[in-house]
Amino acid sequence: MRPVKVGLLGLGVVGGGTWAVLTGNAEEIARRAGRRIEVVAAAVRDIEKARRLVGDAIAITSDGMALVRDPDIEIVVELIGGDTQAFEWVMEAIRQGKHVVTANKALLARHGNEIFAAAHAQGVMVAFEAAVAGGIPIVKAIREGLTANHIQWLAGIINGTTNFILSEMRVRGVSFEQALADAQRLGYAEADPTFDIEGVDAAHKLTLLASLAFGIPVQFDKAYIEGIANLAQEDIAHAERLGYRIKLLGITKRRPEGIELRVHPALIPAERLLANVEGAMNAVMISGDMVGATLYYGQGAGALPTASSVVADLVDMTRLLAADPEHRVPLLAFQPDAMADTPILAMAAVSSSYYLRLRVEDRPGVLADLARILADSGISIGSMFQEPHGENAADIIFLSHEALEGDIDRAIAKIQTLSFVKSKVTRLRVEHLS
Amino acid sequence: MRPVKVGLLGLGVVGGGTWAVLTGNAEEIARRAGRRIEVVAAAVRDIEKARRLVGDAIAITSDGMALVRDPDIEIVVELIGGDTQAFEWVMEAIRQGKHVVTANKALLARHGNEIFAAAHAQGVMVAFEAAVAGGIPIVKAIREGLTANHIQWLAGIINGTTNFILSEMRVRGVSFEQALADAQRLGYAEADPTFDIEGVDAAHKLTLLASLAFGIPVQFDKAYIEGIANLAQEDIAHAERLGYRIKLLGITKRRPEGIELRVHPALIPAERLLANVEGAMNAVMISGDMVGATLYYGQGAGALPTASSVVADLVDMTRLLAADPEHRVPLLAFQPDAMADTPILAMAAVSSSYYLRLRVEDRPGVLADLARILADSGISIGSMFQEPHGENAADIIFLSHEALEGDIDRAIAKIQTLSFVKSKVTRLRVEHLS
Fold first, then answer.
1. pLDDT over threshold 90, residue B112
2. Residue A78 and residue B159: Cα distance in Å, rounded?
3. What is the pLDDT of chain B when averaged over all its residues?
4. Is the pLDDT of residue A434 over 90?
5. From B118's CA, which of A200, A222, A322, B333 has a CA 20 to 30 Å away?
6. How far apart (Å, rounded) are the C-alpha atoms in residues A132 and A159?
């Protein structure tokens, strides 16, 4: 069969990786796909730089719009990132009847519904394995591998930068600031790390995973997002002493009233596999009603792992290019006419266990007062320990049983008014993942 | 669209689970697949028992051959196990132009080449996600998710019974016999556990994984198989002290001279995720040249997890029933005309690190003599420790660097002739998985 003709938007880190995979493993890919996948053109900002990478083998342009309109190109691979120019070019590619592969989570989390609707109307495919968890085939696992299940929940370490920082804070005992500086020096964090450390990148990915798991539209604006910049070293140490590790998790859960959609640091039991995912690695745990818990682990970023997923999408597409749309897997795992409008729950309605830490005057009756407030709010305590701080103060740490976040927040507001409480109450969520 | 009509061979554990998944999650599955999947008939040994399970909803027969010839049935799901009757019925189903889903690793490991050739000739699909690692979508991950990669190696815990036994031996310090008895009492091991504890079941699965990873024919007869029945509690304890855990691994590796294909107990570093897979769970680690190492974890057996994979195959098939064969994923990941005849390596040519334990007389010069023999065989020692045993004897444990198995075996043969060596040398392989 004749080769499939692909146009690349972008030849940066992931674009260069995609070029390297498609050329380096051309034989092995053709052994599987049954035909070759050829990059015929690329649109880039720096034409000289692109020429040094790919030589004269393909057409290079600085005009992305011209590339997506090139009648010779069957699949457009969008790897420029961002959500303005990428959005324009992807929408035009779809209007031109081209299939699209993208690694752009920000684009899909913010404009996914529009893009998927346009693709459906035009009868083209949009694939995005590389947008979530890099080289891990997690989109395929949810969309196809677990298709027999009601997905109940999933929880993932889906941002390598923050996982690297949290690993460093735990293993080396350094502060957040120090760990971030190390991550930047080693290339695990960007010069402006805001999107990573504030949880925005993880929330982009989680939004897509929730759509795939539950058949709901992409709703990034309803995701709760809390990053790791305020995490204190002492909470990581306390967590460890209690048998937990702190990870930045993206969590989405189906509950009778709606769907939880949240990114935040969480204590997880140290014996769980997810707690043992260290450094810049990613992992996603998914629970289905039939299969139980499954877990998927690998590199969540980097040129070649991400390109591995881009090319897997290209091979899938290559097989189905000439097939009727009915033979394809639905873009968001569910048939377009079977999407649900299940509401996303407000955080006050979210259910979790909690870790609370506060500093108090060390005098009789303090614990009784605190326990009374928690009990009155319907919050039951699983364990507690106390650590002297100087002569007259102590730090108290509570681990609660499962409670509504609204209840815990009301209890904390009351505790905060007590005269013997000398600090802001630190509140972290605890996820048992079972 | 009209429902797809499925016939079940077998309504036992996995057959009953498949019935439960297809009926219990019918709505969710149809939301994804776009059409219903209906079981219209089942062939069983005990018709009364089957009627109690499924009522009068479907046709029940004791004649499997009649079922696979029923012109109304589009997909045959084989869940009876074994490789004689199952082989006959599956081959007849293929001759009848029916697609086949099976969970039967023994059947495919022993007759896979014949079955896949017949399916290719007839233009039908044969899917077997449930045959390896139960509910984990590992076939799909290799065949599609990692399709851009040269797979370099994979190593898996793919037998839950033996992993449960090894977990018990380590955590509770019991003997193999005690752990096996517990596993039988708890339903993790069968009354006749031979296939599991001798590694045959794991080798069946590994054989299939190797074909998917490397594009080679199914070659169960060339797999090296060593079970866990001879594992001593003291080796598990020594391993732990050295920072390792012992797991029964299925390992297959691409090397310049050929492919390693082997099932045996192995020491793996305790900090690896694979070392932390406990109880009856399964996990497979796969290394690709582009993606690096990825890992897949979940329940490897049980009615519902296995049925989850059976139904995932049914949904995939449902989409592609009316499509041209070119739109399908190749049965064994590679195009039939692109299969390789790479040889399977003999164990003497396999490369690994080794753990050696032996009892010696405790007198000067013993260690020097042992070290000399190892050095003369080209084996370099990574670490060693010695433990007194009574007044005049000591146990010596060596960990070697990577060596050829032929070299280590020649060295052991020499050591075994030394007059101060009081025991048979225990030799276990060490896998660093990196």
1. yes
2. 41
3. 97
4. no
5. A322
6. 9
Which chain B residues are within 8 Å of A32, Cβ to Cβ? 147, 215, 330, 333-335, 338
B chain contacts of residue A103, beta-carbon cutoff 8 Å:
none
Q: Tell me which chain B residue has its CA closest to the CA of residue A134.
A: B291
Query: Nearest CA to A109 among A225, A195, A228, A211?
Result: A211
Would you place residue A226 in the very low, low, confident or very high pLDDT band (cuts 50, 70, 90)?
very high
pLDDT at residue number B349: 97
Taking the domains of chain B in order of start, what are their residue ranges?
Answer: 4-135+303-338, 139-297, 348-430
- pLDDT above 90 (res B1): no
Taking the alpha carbons of A220, A320, B285, A185 in that order, is the dihedral positive or negative?
negative
For all residues of chain A together, what is the average pLDDT? Answer: 97
Written out in words, the top-level CATH class of the domain with range B139-297 is alpha beta
Chain A: residue whose CA lies nearest to B286: A298
The span from the CA of B141 to the CA of B288, in Å, is 12
3.30.70.1130, 3.40.50.1820, 2.60.40.10, 3.30.360.10: CATH of A138-299: 3.30.360.10
| The pLDDT value given to residue A357 | 98
CB spacing of B291 vs A32 below 8 angstroms:
no
For residue B208, what pLDDT is reported?
98
Which architecture characterizes domain B348-430 according to CATH? 2-Layer Sandwich (3.30)
Half-sphere exposure of A294 (CA within 13 A, CB side): 29
Percentage of residues in chain B with pLDDT exceeding 70?
100
- Which helix (DSSP H) or strand (DSSP E) does residue A378 occupy? none
Query: DSSP assignment of A176-238, as one string?
Result: HHHHHHHHHHTTSS-SS-HHHHTTHHHHHHHHHHHHHHH-----GGG-EE--STT--HHHHHH
Whether residue B99 contacts residue B128, with contact meaning beta carbons closer than 8 Å, is answered with: no
Q: Is CATH 3.90.228.20 the right assignment for the domain spanning A4-135+303-338? A: no
Q: Which of B308, B309, B315 to mutate to test the interface with A (most CBs of A within 10 A)?
A: B308
Return the beta strands (E) in B144-273 as ranges: 151-157, 224-225, 244-255, 258-269
Q: Do A330 and B135 touch (CB under 8 A)?
A: no
pLDDT given at position A1 = 82
**Cα-to-chain-centroid distance, residue A23:** 29
N residues, chain A:
434
Sequence-distant (≥ 6) Cβ neighbours of residue A211 within 8 angstroms: A112, A217, A218, A219, A332, A333
User: Which residues in chain B touch residue A136, judged by CB atoms under 8 angstroms apart?
Assistant: 294
Partners of B290 on chain A (C-beta within 8 Å) are 17, 21, 24-25, 135, 304-305, 307-308, 311
Residues with Cβ within 8 Å of B52's Cβ and at least 6 positions away in sequence, in order, are none
The CATH number that domain A350-430 falls under is: 3.30.70.260
pLDDT of res. A48? 96
Joined tokens for residue A245: 């590790």
Distance CA B280, CA B183 (A): 10
Q: What is the pLDDT of residue B95?
A: 98
Nearest-by-CA chain A residue for B32: A334
Residue B77, annotated ligand binder?
Answer: no
